[in-house]
Amino acid sequence: MEAKVYKDDRQTVLVCCGTGCTANGGREVFRAFQKRLENHPEMEVLPVIKATGCNGWCEKGPLVRLMPRDITYCSVAEKDVDEIVDKTLLEGVLIKRLLYRDPVSKEHLTSHHLTDFYRKQHKIALRNIGEIDPGQINDYIEREGYQALKKALQDMDGQAVIDAVKTAGLRGRGGGGFPTGSKWQSCRDAKGEPKYIICNGDEGDPGAFMDRSIMEGDPHTVIEGMILGAYAVGATHGYIYVRDEYDLAVQYLGQAVKDARQQGYLGSNIMGSELSFDIELVRGGGAFVCGEETALMASIEGRTGEPRDKYVYPTEKGLWGKPTIINNVETWANVPVIILHGAEAFAAIGTEKSKGTKVFSLVGKVVNTGLVEVPMGTTLREIIYEIGGGVLKKRRFKAVQTGGPSGGCIPASLLDLPIDFDSLTEAGSMMGSGGLIVMDDHTCMVEVARYYVNFLAGESCGKCTPCREGIRAMLEILTDICNGKGKLEDLQLLEDISATMQEASLCALGRTAPNPVLSTLRYFRDEYIEHIENRFCPAGICRELTTFYIDPEKCTGCTLCMKSCAVNAITGEKKQVHVIDESSCIRCGECYRTCNFDAIKLARRDRHEN
Amino acid sequence: MKIKLNGQEREAQKGESILELCRRENVTIPTFCYHQAFGGQGACRMCMVEVIEKGRKESRLVAACTYPLNSPVEIITESPRIQRMRRTLVMLLARRADRHPLLKEMAESYDAPHLGAIETKPADCILCGLCIHACEEMGRSAIWSMFRGIDKRIATPYDEAADDCMGCAACARVCPTQAIKVEEAGSERKIWNKTFELIACQRCGKRYATREEIEYLQERSGYQQEHLCESCRKKTLAINMKNYLQ
Questions:
Q1: Chain B residues touching residue A471 (CB < 8 angstroms)
Q2: Hey, what domains does chain B have and what are their CATH numbers?
Q3: Between chains, do A464 and B44 touch, taking CB under 8 Å as contact?
Q4: DSSP-based helix, strand, coil % in chain A, nearest 5
Q5: Can you give the pTM of this predicted structure?
């Protein structure tokens, strides 16, 4: 295989240095390229090397992309760098082992754009990520950066910007799906000075990293969106509230704000216009509840991050009692595209009531974990099977958890559900910020509900009775069920408590907190009953209820289970039937998940012991 | 502004809360976290009522203590839906102070099932937050809520004797469940892990306030006074008034 060499072409090496790739050695790869290409004697024109944001394909990272040839190398290690330079950059020869091999066609694909993972995606919010160095404002400018702002300042007034956002049908990407244009309108119409713009970057759902990758990979799009928002409503001050744990995001956003100020995109008389607007970075302490907008504002004000009743919207009385718009990172990232390329083009994508695309972080028991951006209305099946490559180890799909702790679990029967804000809510879950956690048949749905409730037990602010005490009671009940102490009437109690939490809680965290419980009760009630009546966990997760044994008929003596056992409870010779010693087994289920021959079986713990 | 309250037309002031209107109109709404000195917190959620806003057919539940009356709405303060919700709330909250008469009575009146008591620190605290407000209003903020979620509790920083605490016991006085313990013996008062000296009234000799509180109040008011307990202060005031009028 050979690709043509263009010795005089300026080549670019894009090394993914998103959080996932950095953890896998992306930075080392980047530095190795820098070192190797420094005054390379044979290179007539030295390539440009860029550390980019997250490409989304975290499963295959660190990714290295070579432009303009459009070659993508997967799982690149430091030691591969010399070979890439010598063979591909200099000679144009492809290195087969670093290319992605399609699992179905078995073909080696030269570019990531050819893979199923990318082909089905439609990038708007993530359009620049992976293509630019997030630390370089000029990289952003080269890719139409700040052009939307220029257009708005020259050809549109504030109302026209709002009208465009309304026509585009943009809805808040942070979870609620509130129409962004209406929000802005009410802030523009509100009396009070100054007005504030807030970017909510307090992403806290377990398994979610959409906003993180935007802030890390393309910080200027967020800033440009916010400036457009400021222009639309007449705001003078902006805040980006970002979790302090998002180290890279804090770093790149800080740099971006500084650079934007220096180039006249922030500050007084932006681009020579009447508009004056500046942004300050606020680092959040990592409380999940601070993603709730009134709690977030309280946190910026220096008070305890507790929500307040929103009978008067923040657009009228928000930060320091002044009109405020607060939108999520991804929402802001969509705004420049809407202004520059037109509301109609944006509205042409998606479903009737949910326009544009949505970024999802696809994780769990799925082949291709990573970040995907798809048009609204894409089905769960397309995302999980076509983009995600299906369930790991070809196991049976059981459920997908959407929307984090506020969302729910959607069963296999709803895989063909076209996802948008409304369809997910109808299914008893919610869009949330876009977490998608795929679960296979080794997942206990009662335990999943318990996990989320436990998460919220630590993350609710604890201010209002229904949320704090409701979560406490639900956690006790679910823990009892998982420990084999559940009663059938508990299910009714769970539903009663849930109903009150949904009606009476102060903020959306409490109102949606029962969703993981209610959705699993709705779709997997049998599993609850199995735990309660038969004292059995069909997924083999609840330790008090299950025990494992090896089926001698099926065991091949491969020793895999033995190696996976943390407490050496499995004994056996190679190619001979293995045995689990129940007295030392801690019932972690690792062997059950490892076995490739279905030889490890589950049994009811009490039945087996008696 | 005309408001419909339980089917009857009532006059409301713009911006006041539903609870303020109801208190004035003698419509009973149960609350745990409301005190007129601090306004609504929306924390206990017992005061939730149904409102039907203009242009809507269906009612929604709102907290009466924080919902501001800005437009003509219809308010319903009792309904099966409200009853059901309060019953669950009382069931959940009563666990924190299940032997306290206030919660016991409330649980009985709503026929709330017994879920089993939980331990709280301090005992019987229902986390209404009134003590925090009282302390903040006194200008001290010596106590605050610690932690989040189900671990939330009221405490001084690090549970140690707080520099800012002046032992005024305003927190204990507003506590609806008497959860904040004030121990007084002789010339000493103990509260929040801190011991204070109680100053005697210069007229009757009764030990009535801590030295820190008296000094703080004198400093804040800029007014040096005789050290007088409440009843002696009233007596003095009455005598002064009488002399003045004569």
A1: 149-150
A2: 2-78 (3.10.20.740), 130-245 (no CATH)
A3: yes
A4: 45, 15, 40
A5: 0.93
